[in-house]
Each structure stands twice: as structure tokens, then as C-alpha cells.
Amino acid sequence: MVAKGALYFLLSVLITCGPDLALARHFPGRPSIHPAPYQPYKAIPLSSTRQKNKVCFVKPGHSKGHDDGPAIRAALHKCNNGGTVVLDKEYTVCSPLDLRFLKHIDIALTGKVEFCTNLDFWQQNFFTFQFQDAASWWVWGGEDIHLYGAGTGVIHGNGQAWYDAAAANESTRRPCLFITDGWHGGSITGLKLRHSPNWHNFIANSSDLLISDIDIFSRSFSSAWAANLDGWDTFRSDNVVIQNSVINHDDDCVSFKPNSTNIIVQGLHCNGSHGISVGSLGNYPDQYDIVSDLFIYNNTMANTTTAARLKVWPGAEAIKKGNPQWVGGGGQGYVRNVTYDTMINDNNNLAIQIDQCYGAINASECEDHPSGVILEDILFKNMWGTANGADDPVAGQLICAAEESCDNIRAENVTLTNPSGEPPQWQCRFMDVDQLDLGGVGCIPA
Ligand SMILES: *[C@@H]1O[C@H](CO)[C@@H](O)[C@H](O)[C@H]1NC(C)=O
Ligand SMILES: *[C@@H]1O[C@H](CO)[C@@H](O)[C@H](O)[C@H]1NC(C)=O
Ligand SMILES: *[C@@H]1O[C@H](CO)[C@@H](O)[C@H](O)[C@H]1NC(C)=O
Ligand SMILES: *[C@@H]1O[C@H](CO)[C@@H](O)[C@H](O)[C@H]1NC(C)=O
Ligand SMILES: *[C@@H]1O[C@H](CO)[C@@H](O)[C@H](O)[C@H]1NC(C)=O
Ligand SMILES: *[C@@H]1O[C@H](CO)[C@@H](O)[C@H](O)[C@H]1NC(C)=O
Ligand SMILES: *[C@@H]1O[C@H](CO)[C@@H](O)[C@H](O)[C@H]1NC(C)=O
Ligand SMILES: *[C@@H]1O[C@H](CO)[C@@H](O)[C@H](O)[C@H]1NC(C)=O
Ligand SMILES: *[C@@H]1O[C@H](CO)[C@@H](O)[C@H](O)[C@H]1NC(C)=O
């Protein structure tokens, strides 16, 4: 999907690197895509200009089983600091790529990059991170980087092989399709992300980034479950805009992990997800998690388990109901100033879910060990549409652990309908009901 009004201009250049020397080739210039309608609190820094004659085209190999990774890395080195790398053919990457050295560079990925399905090799060789076992075959970072696909570029993870392997052996560690680790300034636009083995995007240690016009599609075509295919997870990142994108997958559409601040999410269509979610937070004792200043505007949520969601573990280690391996809780921190404004609900189980007892065995257990992650200044407004009836007439849950662990949680102009025609009910615990304009019968005890 390419934004209307995006400006494309074809550049014709003399090739200065690569073997096809002196052949003029065309490639689309960086599109003019900007944050809209809401602007980040701090403007994305302006880029230095790219040199017209510093362009590296990457020629894919032809032999069976070849690896284009080294050629891609070499081109990024060669055209770093003021150039453009063009990936307009079909490439296969079979070895890890550490791309955290990028500076003042554009990458026109208008062709296709896919990853070898050499699962054993990858599991021994990909980049691994501590946070929730994240791993990937490449890691992107640096300063003033624009990666664009102009609506045609594809990054393909061959996820099916991973979903099937994970179904056969649950210890299979599956890579994220795309990880940024310290990407400061720039944009990622116009790409199609296909069949990610795990989270599609892990945006870590990054800032001042615009992500726009991304088309995500990942589903399993076997009986194996394509689990954990989050659209974007943000972590230790500030001043990021994610907008105008279509996401077809399972699990969180966008998930704000610890230390995600000043993030705008606008104009997404999420189908089949677990919603736009804060958390889970407070998962680990001795850690202080901050999520603040989020504005989540004008998103369409279809076929989700929950459209707008906040999940926070209790204050003491809890065991997720029915799953003794899923243990967490005891962390501290806060979620502050989070607004969900204008959310279209289409066939979701729940429209809103605050769960500050995530993983707790029961309500009294949760109240005895209330979460150390405080929720404050949370607003849901202008939400409408029809639930799918799974929990009819319940349209949502707003559950705090205790009186003192939540402050100023409000709802305005929320007008959900149920397929049964019954007025919606909202299961609440420790809410200030005067601040909740939820329509229907409003709060009932949870
Ligand atoms: C399952 O995968 C893990 C991690 O790759 C590996 O160590 C283990 O040997 C595998 N088990 C079987 C039965 O293949
Ligand atoms: C982010 O930065 C921290 C601290 O430097 C580091 O431990 C971590 O590996 C980095 N990357 C990710 C993906 O967390
Ligand atoms: C998040 O920020 C807080 C406060 O600066 C810090 O104590 C904590 O270690 C950070 N968490 C991570 C995962 O970086
Ligand atoms: C909401 O987002 C859609 C794209 O999903 C866009 O067409 C529409 O103009 C946006 N509306 C507002 C009020 O921003
Ligand atoms: C949404 O996902 C469902 C499968 O869960 C699929 O049948 C449907 O076609 C998707 N909708 C769109 C618009 O892609
Ligand atoms: C709340 O967050 C929004 C979105 O980032 C920001 O525009 C606004 O200034 C913040 N409000 C306060 C009181 O910090
Ligand atoms: C929701 O899923 C159904 C199939 O399960 C599909 O027909 C429909 O198009 C989906 N809705 C959207 C908006 O994608
Ligand atoms: C809640 O769970 C605890 C721990 O299993 C148990 O001791 C307690 O009786 C339960 N309370 C209720 C009300 O079910
Ligand atoms: C309430 O939300 C609807 C969308 O459901 C919107 O059209 C309307 O303007 C909102 N009303 C107010 C008073 O903001």
C-alpha cells in the first residue's frame, strides 16, 4: 500500500559501483512520506543530502544455494555516508548481517530479500538478545537511514518452515523478521513483510523514526500455529510514528514493551490480531518498566481478541492460569498518558481490556499482591463498532489490581454494540465509574 500523495521521482544515474559499470539504471527516489495527521512531539531530524553519483546496485548471485548477504553488506559499506543502495532484484540471505554501522544512507529495497530455510544454521548463528529471547538474522542500526520499498519491495521470512519446525520441536528458536538496534533518525516505508517466523518488527534502542505504508501478511498454511507474529514491538525506544499500514497476522498488532515513550500509532488496519497492546509489563522482578505518552489514533481493528489492551503482571510472581511454565510478575514502573482515540471495532471479542492481574490465579491473589506497575492517565475515546458476540453481552474488561495501583482511567464516547442487541456490559474492578462513559449498562463487577 502506498500513501496517496506520496511523491515518487525516478532517478537515472551512472553506476559507480557494482559490475555493470557505466550502465544507466533507474530506481525510485526516496518517497515523500510524512507523519500525518498527528506529528511526533519532536520532528524527525532532516537528512543530509544523498550524492547522486554514489549509488550501489547489488547484483544477485545465480548459483543454487548462493548467499547474497556478503554482497549486500559490501554495498552498504561502500555507499554508506551519503549514498544509496539499490536492491531491485531477488536476493537470498543465508548468513547473519550486522547492519548497525549505517549512517546517512538510503536503501531502495524495491525487489525481494528472502532468508534461507537452513534452520539449524540460523539457530547457531543468528543475533540474540536478552529481551524475551528475541533473535534475528540481521540487525539494523545507525543514524539517518531511509529504507523504502516504494510499494513493491518484499522482505520474506519463509515462516512456514519455522512454524512447522516449532510445531515438531517447541525448542526451535524462531527469528524476528526485522530488528532495529539503535536506529536513530529516518524512515522505513513502502515494504511488504511476508511470512515472518516470529515478531515482524522489533524496534529496540531506537528513536526519531517514521514507519509508514507497510503491508504485513503472515499466516500458516499447515496445521502448525503461526504464533507470536506481532506486527511491531517497541522497546527502549522514543519518538516513533507507526502509521498507514495493513496487518494480517496473529498476536499483537503493535505492542509497547518496556521503555517505549512518545509513540504515535495512526491509520492502521489490523486483522486477526490481539490488538494494540501495552505490555506485558512488570514481568520481571527488580525491573522498572516505563511506557508513556502514547497516542493511538484512527485505527481499524477487525477479528481481534481485544482491540485496545493493557496487560500488567501482579506484584508477586504469578502463574498464568493453566500454564505452569508461564510465570511472571513482581516488576515495577508505570504506564502514563496513553490515549486511544477513534477506534473502529469490527468483529472483536472485546473492545477494551485492561488487565492489571495478568497471570494472577484469582482476584484476591491479585489484590493481595497488587501490581507495582501503576496505570495513570489512560483515556479511551470515540470507539465504536460491533463486537463478535464471543463474550456477549460483555464488550470489555477494565480490571485494576487495587485502589492505589490505578489513577485517572477514563472513557468518553464509547458506543459499542453487541450482535445480540443486548446493551454492552463492562467488567470492572477498582474503577472510578463516574469517569467511564462506556455506553450500555456501564460497569458490572468482574
Ligand atoms: C529441538 O530443538 C533444540 C534447539 O534447536 C535442539 O537442541 C534439540 O535437539 C531438538 N530436539 C529434537 C528432538 O530434535
Ligand atoms: C539495546 O541496548 C541494551 C543496552 O545497551 C543492550 O543490552 C541490548 O542488547 C540492545 N538491543 C536490544 C535488541 O535489546
Ligand atoms: C527503563 O527505564 C528505567 C528508568 O530510566 C530504568 O531503570 C530501566 O532499567 C529501563 N529498562 C530497560 C529495559 O532498559
Ligand atoms: C483514518 O485512517 C484512514 C486510513 O486507514 C484514512 O483513510 C482516514 O482519512 C483517516 N481519518 C482521519 C480522520 O484521520
Ligand atoms: C482477515 O483475516 C481472515 C482470517 O482470519 C481472512 O479470512 C480475511 O480475508 C482477512 N481480511 C482481509 C481484509 O484480508
Ligand atoms: C501525552 O502524550 C501525547 C502523545 O505523545 C503528547 O502529545 C502529550 O503532550 C502528552 N501529555 C502530557 C500531559 O504529557
Ligand atoms: C474478519 O474475518 C472474516 C473471516 O473470518 C473475513 O471474512 C473478514 O473479511 C474479516 N474482516 C476484515 C475487516 O478483515
Ligand atoms: C485464590 O487462589 C489462592 C491460591 O491458590 C487460594 O489460596 C485462594 O483460596 C483462592 N481464592 C479464591 C477466592 O478462590
Ligand atoms: C463520538 O464518536 C463518534 C464516532 O463513533 C463521532 O462521530 C462523534 O463525533 C463523537 N462524539 C463526540 C462528542 O466526540
Write a structural description:
- By secondary structure, this protein is mainly beta.
- The protein has two domains: 1-249, Single-stranded right-handed beta-helix, Pectin lyase-like (Pectate Lyase C-like); 252-446, Pectate Lyase C-like (3 Solenoid), CATH 2.160.20.
- The protein is built from four helices and 30 strands.
- The protein has helices spanning 69-78, 119-125, 159-168, 363-368, and strands at 10-14, 24-28, 55-57, 84-86, 90-93, 97-108, 112-115, 127-128, 135-136, 138-156, 178-194, 201-204, 207-212, 215-217, 232-235, 237-248, 254-256, 260-271, 276-281, 288-302, 306-312, 318-319, 327-328, 332-348, 350-355, 372-387, 394-399, 406-417, 425-429, 442-445.
- The model is unreliable at 1-23 (pLDDT under 50).
- The structure holds 2-acetamido-2-deoxy-beta-D-glucopyranose (9 copies).
- The site of one 2-acetamido-2-deoxy-beta-D-glucopyranose has 5 residues, from strand 20.
CATH topology of the largest domain: Pectate Lyase C-like
Report how far the terminal alpha carbons are from each other. Answer: 42 Å
Oligomer classification: single chain
Bound molecules: 2-acetamido-2-deoxy-beta-D-glucopyranose
**Which secondary-structure class do the elements indicate?**
mainly beta
Question: Strand content of the residues, in percent?
Answer: over 45%
Count of DSSP-assigned helices: 4
Radius of gyration: 23 Å
**What's the main sheet like?**
24 strands, parallel
The chain-level mean pLDDT equals 93
CATH class of the largest domain: Mainly Beta
How many β-strands, per DSSP?
A: 30
- Low confidence ranges: 1-23
C-alpha geometry: globular
User: How many domains make up the 3D coordinates?
Assistant: 2
CATH homologous superfamily title of the largest domain:
Single-stranded right-handed beta-helix, Pectin lyase-like
Give the fraction of residues assigned to helices.
under 10%
